[in-house]
Amino acid sequence: MIWKVYLSGEIHSDWRQQLIDGAKADDLPITFTSAVTDHEASDAAGDLLGAEENSFWRDHKSSKVNAIRTKTHLENCDIAIIRFGEKFKQWNAAFDAGYCAAKGKPYITLHDEEIVHALKEVDAAAMAWAKTTDQVIQILKYVTRT
C-alpha cells in the first residue's frame, strides 16, 4: 500500500521538506500532498474570478478556490499531519484538524510545547502529538511498515 499523507498548516518553515526527505531516506511508501504554500498565490486564488474592491470578498473567493484542493486532498488522504507554528495563528490548520476529527480521518499534530494549552481540544482528537518532524517520521515508519 502507498500511503497518502496530507501536510497541513504553517508555511513559514521547511517542516514539509523535512518530512518528505525523512520519508525518502527511510524509503517509506508515502505520497505527500499539501495546500498551496505560496502565501501570495493562495491569497490571490480567487482573483481569476474577477477583482474585488472589498478584501472580505477577495478572501472569500480565494478561500473557496483553495478549499477545492484542500478538501479533495483531505478526503483522499490516509493520514494528515497538521503543523502549528509560532509565527502566526494557523486558523486554517485548526479547521483542517476539525474536519479530520469530524470525518474520522486520523491526524497527527506537530507543534511546540508552548502552545499545548491553546491546542488541547485539537490534540485530544489527534492520534498523536509530535514535537519534532523526526517523531512524525518515526510514527509514519511504524504505521506504514507491514
Summarize the structure.
It contains six helices and five strands. By secondary structure, it is of the alpha/beta class. Helix 1 packs across helix 6.
Mean pLDDT across all amino acids: 95
Specify the biggest β-sheet: 5 strands, parallel
Strand percentage lies at: 15-25%
Helix-strand pattern: EHEHHEHEHEH
Kindly report the CATH topology. Answer: Rossmann fold
User: In terms of per-residue confidence, which ranges show pLDDT below 50 for 5 or more consecutive residues?
Assistant: none
CATH architecture: 3-Layer(aba) Sandwich
**Class by SSE composition:** alpha/beta
List keywords for this structure.
146 residues; alpha/beta; Rossmann fold; 5 strands
Describe the protein in words.
The protein is 47% helix and 16% strand. It is an alpha/beta fold. It has a single domain, classed as Rossmann fold (3-Layer(aba) Sandwich), CATH 3.40.50.450. Helix 5 links the parallel strand 4 and strand 5. Helix 1 packs across helix 6. The N and C termini lie close together (9 Å).
